[in-house]
Amino acid sequence: MAKPTTAEPAHSGLSPRQRRRVSLGIQYAVFVVILVAIVLLADWPRIAQNFFNGEVARGMFPELFTIALKNTVIFTISGYVLGFFLGLVLALMRLSSVGVYRAVALVYIEIFRGLPALIIFLLLGFGLPIAFPGFKLPGDIYGTVALALGLVAAAYMAESFRAGIQAVPKGQMEAARSLGMRPGRAMISIILPQAIRIVIPPLTNELILLFKDSSLVFTLGVTAATTELTKFGSDATIDNANSTPLIVAGATYLLITIPLGIVVRRLEARQGRKR
């Protein structure tokens, strides 16, 4: 009795490398077709008039830098400084041997990492005057924005600091204690400097996030003197019935965030080489 024959699978005759090249060629071809279609179908004169209008862009200077960018930087730096120190305290509380400290820090971190920054801004801007009539933060709008950004940043920085502290070898603390150094002194002089160096990349990344989150200041009702980049660009867009101010404001953000992003990547690469 003859055995049933099975059909051999057909082979394309292409090696895996050749199939990969064909696949990449098809993907590039699709990309080129889409790009050409966009170039041919787009109304470039209208795009230039509505998004890249030089006359409208020139009308934004020098206020774009002297007011909008200046305020954005002030909001960002003040919130970052507050978040840095509050986050450091929270990290130490999370690592404390006192259960109450750990619980308070954990609840704070979970709440402020879970809530959108917009809600924090609204609660501070409208909730504080209701809860404490007549109370005003120092610096008025600047103080409110610094507190809002700082509270949000602290929750994220705390976890970065905690990870950095735990990454320092335990032998460092043991060696400091063997030399007669008190735990608090050893933490400040030995552990924290090393931990901060370890977490510089995520801390720099948090600065980028705060720079962008500062745009939420519009919820507090800013004036012409306290406006920031996004609000400035939005108002100019409405006044000119043209979208160019938004493009200019976005480009100004990129002038800050792209160099900071490059710094973060280089710091991360340096940390990786050290490991």
From TrEMBL:
Mode of membrane association: Multi-pass membrane protein
Pfam family, one: BPD_transp_1
Ranges annotated as spanning the membrane: 22-42, 73-93, 114-135, 141-165, 186-204, 246-267
Localization (cell): Cell membrane
PROSITE patterns given in the database record: ABC_TM1
Keywords, ordered alphabetically: Amino-acid transport, Cell membrane, Membrane, Transmembrane, Transmembrane helix, Transport
Domain annotation ABC transmembrane type-1: ranges: 69-264
Similarity annotation: Belongs to the binding-protein-dependent transport system permease family. HisMQ subfamily.
Name of protein: Amino acid ABC transporter permease
Native species: Nonomuraea typhae
